[in-house]
Amino acid sequence: MFIVLEGIDGTGKSTQVQLLADWFVQQGREVVTSREPTDGPWGKRLRESAATGRATAEEELELFLRDRRQHVEELISPSLAAGKVMILDRYYFSTMAYQGSRGLDIDEIRRKNEAFAPLPDHLFILDLDVDLALQRIGGRGDTANEFEKRGALQKCREIFLSLRTEPFAQLIDASVPMENVHEQIKSALAERR
């Protein structure tokens, strides 16, 4: 099973990935969790770009494609082939949102990714008002980086919301306590089995 959690910064994706992984482990399933960008060479360059001054949208897209291709080849596909539950914190839908918010064509971004990246079985879009997301980002002691400016986050949120009509997508209200978000995700999984 391939599960992806998406949403703007501050929605609690990392927390939900861990809660979901723990839940599957309690059921006796083998689980692999990961995130994008990865900690590989291309992902590190992307993280540095966010902290030190962003690359162009086109350069970022190329780095994301290289990072994701390596991720698919070395971790995602082998994990799925071995029958494990693969849970990702961000995937190419984030690339569509964040690079799309910078003016790149989201359909073209999607086409380039789906040429090699498998579709998830479940895409959970954790949705949160931008102002609340910014409060959470500030509340965790972080300063907003270039990916986390209000206008950019609003555009990203709109792109994420446009994905909710996909047959494998489910919109999750991330404004509620994390336990309630986890229950929403578990309920959605139960309904789709």
Give the helix level as a range of percent. Answer: 55-70%
Strand arrangement across the biggest beta sheet: 2-3-1-4-5
N/C terminus separation = 11 Å
Largest sheet: 5 strands, parallel
State the CATH topology. Answer: Rossmann fold
Supply the number of structural domains: 1
CATH class designation: Alpha Beta
Low-confidence stretches: none
Estimated share of beta-strand residues: 5-15%
Question: What is the H/E string?
Answer: EHEHHEHHEHHEH
The number of strands is: 5
Radius of gyration: 16 Å
Mean pLDDT: 91
InterPro entries: P-loop_NTPase (IPR027417), Thymidylate_kin-like_dom (IPR039430), Thymidylate_kin_CS (IPR018095), Thymidylate_kinase (IPR018094)
Enzyme class: transferase
EC number: 2.7.4.9
Family: Belongs to the thymidylate kinase family.
Report what the structure shows.
The chain is of the alpha/beta class. The chain has a single domain (2-192), classed as Rossmann fold, CATH 3.40.50.300. The protein has 8 helices and 5 strands; from the N terminus they run βαβααβααβααβα. The chain has helices at 13-26, 41-52, 57-81, 92-100, 106-114, 130-139, 150-162, 178-192, and strands spanning 2-6, 31-35, 85-89, 122-127, 169-173. Helix 2 runs antiparallel to helix 3 (57-81). It is globular.
